[in-house]
Each structure stands twice: as structure tokens, then as C-alpha cells.
Design a protein that fits this description.
about 325 residues, 4-stranded mixed sheet, 9 helices, 11 strands, about 30% helix, disordered N terminus
Length: about 325
């Protein structure tokens, strides 16, 4: 979503579970993520390519059919959406993609990269799609820089598959009186570079300045885990992340003793699978595959397993973000 001058509390707060409700099967730990850019890993549970035996194989572009694999660009350090555990890529996105792969008759291959370079990799055809908790926004659809509002690249299409907002969290027991974005004036915040949280922090800092208050000191990192480490070390007062990620960090980091959520979730918007605008055949095949797993219950099983079923979509939209 495009950052607004004043973050607005999401009207759909009840659609997403409270922080404590992120219950992950098998008590997954926040370990082994690290920075693994440019390393290639197959998605956990990826479907074996069955060619024409799969119901939607014929819908795919011939290039993907011949390859038997869908290359997915993703920032694989964003638990519980995508991260590494015991050498495997796991999380909400890999599980949804694997279920879609079974309908399409191809394997899904998650390839790691920094978040703010994923769309560049998609445009250069390094990836077939990008799937990485990426918010579907008009700016991304049109290739517009959210700061300058100028066109800087080719836009992409999105197949929307999940709904999530943005949350703030602090060190546990040391909230610095932060209860909302308005309380961040004069404070320090860590974010992942190129995310909606980054845009919101910059927008709120400008508002602080207009209101004759101290601006926000923003530290942007390649991964969300680096931002969390900075907060644990006391280098910043708060971190902003997408809701599922913030809730998972609050629940699991330090056994639940490192962080606490503050304020309400804001700017609820859809996550989208990014596809090149020229690749409408692949986009439409992905939409049908997502619709199929919603209908057959595989999608519901994934979101319930990860405790985020309140953010599930019921209807698949293309470019539904604003």
C-alpha cells in the first residue's frame, strides 16, 4: 500500500489474529534464517511435475511447462511468511505456492534475494514470479516511486492471496511510551528497506516535522531479522513489520520475552504474487490455481497451520491493492 501521511488503524482489525494467536505447528523457532541471498532452495513440499496429469498444466506458458519448475523470487528471512528451518524453505508463502504447484503440475523453486531487488529480478526474467509478503499497491502496479511519484520502472501485475496490515513492537517492558505512530516523533525505529513499513516511517517523520516536532530517526536494513537484532541490542526504540511477522517475533523471540506489540495494526492491504505485465498467461494460470486450492481446502489448511487464517482471502483478485 502507498504510505499515507497519517497511518490509519485498519477497519478490518478483527480479520487478523491478535499477536498471541500466532500458534505455529511444531513450535518453530526463529533460527537458521540469516542472510542467504543468491542461494537457491526448493520450496518445502513442492509438487512433483506431472505435466498434463495436473488439472491446470495446460494453462501455463510453454516455457514454464518445458522447464517443469516455477522460479520464485523471495526474501527468505521473514518468518513466518518465508524463512529457513533445518535447511528447508518453510512458511506461509512456500506452503501456498507448493499447493498451487500441485494444481499446475510444476515444482516451485524459491530463490533468495533482498526484498527491494525482487521486482528488478522479475523484470530481468531471473524469476518467473515474486512472492514475498509483497503488498499489492498501485505504485508497484505502475512502477511508480512512492516518494517522488515518478515512474521509475515497468509495473507488475499482482495475484492477491492474503490480507495483512503493519504493526509496531518494542522491547518487552520498555515501550518508551509508544502507543501509536504519532508517538514516534523524536524516537528511533528500525525497518526493512523498501517495505511499506519503511514508507510509513518516512511519511510519519515528515508529519512530525510539519507539526514542529522532532523527526524520526529511521534505520533501514536488508532483512527484518536485522531490524529485530538492532531492537534487542537497544539501538532503536521500535521496529515496524507486517502483522504476521511482528506477531511471530513477539511470540517466539527469546521465548516471548524479547518484544511486545504496541498500538493497533494499520494500513491493512493485500499481499500479491507479482508477475510481469507481459506474462498474462502465467498470471491467469496462477489465479486459477489459487482459486482451486481455496476451493479444495488446501489453502485453508496452510493458513490454519500457521495461525493466520483470519487474514485469508475468500475471493482471488488481480491488482486489488490501492
Amino acid at each position: 500500500m502507498t504510505a499515507s501521511t497519517t497511518p490509519r488503524p485498519t477497519a478490518a482489525r478483527s480479520r487478523l489474529a491478535a499477536a498471541g494467536a500466532i500458534a505455529v505447528a511444531g513450535t518453530l523457532l526463529l533460527t537458521g534464517c540469516g542472510d542467504q541471498r543468491d542461494k537457491t532452495t526448493s520450496g518445502n513440499g513442492a509438487a512433483s511435475a506431472k505435466g498434463s496429469d495436473a488439472p491446470l498444466f495446460g494453462k501455463l506458458p510453454k516455457k514454464v511447462q518445458d522447464a517443469g519448475v516455477l522460479k520464485v523470487g523471495s526474501d527468505i528471512a521473514y518468518p513466518p511468511v518465508e524463512f529457513k528451518k533445518d535447511g528447508k524453505v518453510v512458511g506461509i508463502d512456500p506452503d501456498i505456492a507448493a499447493a498451487m504447484g500441485k494444481e499446475l503440475g510444476v515444482k516451485v523453486d524459491f530463490q533468495n534475494g533482498t526484498f527491494d531487488a525482487l521486482l528488478t529480478g522479475l523484470r530481468s526474467k531471473r524469476y518467473d514470479i515474486a512472492m514475498s509478503a509483497m503488498t499489492d499497491t498501485k505504485d508497484r502496479q505502475e512502477g511508480i516511486d512512492p516518494k517522488t511519484k515518478k515512474k521509475v520502472a515497468e509495473g507488475v501485475d499482482f495475484v492477491d492471496y492474503f490480507n495483512a496490515g503493519v504493526s509496531l513492537y518494542t522491547k518487552k517492558g520498555d515501550t518508551k511510551d509508544i502507543k501509536s505512530w504519532e508517538d514516534l516523533c523524536g524516537k528511533k525505529i528500525a525497518v526493512q528497506r523498501g517495505t511499506v513499513s519503511h514508507d510509513l516511517a518516512k511519511s510519519q517523520s515528515e508529519k512530525c516535522e510539519k507539526d514542529d516536532k522532532d523527526t524520526i530517526a529511521i534505520e533501514a536494513f536488508d532483512t527484518d531479522l536485522e531490524a529485530q537484532t538492532r531492537l534487542k541490542a537497544g539501538g532503536v526504540d521500535a521496529v515496524s513489520s507486517d502483522f504476521p511477522v511482528a506477531a511471530y517475533a513477539v511470540k517466539t523471540s527469546g521465548g516471548g520475552n524479547d518484544f511486545e506489540s504496541v498500538g493497533e495494526q494499520v494500513e491493512a492491504a493485500p499481499y500479491g504474487i507479482a508477475v510481469s505485465k507481459e506474462n498474462t498467461q502465467l498470471r491467469d494460470a496462477l489465479k486459477e490455481a489459487l482459486e482451486a486450492i481455496i476451493k479444495n481446502g488446501a489453502y485453508e489448511k496452510v493458513v490454519k497451520t500457521w495461525g493466520v487464517d483470519a487474514g485469508a482471502v475468500k475471493e482471488v483478485k488481480i491488482n486489488g491493492g490501492s
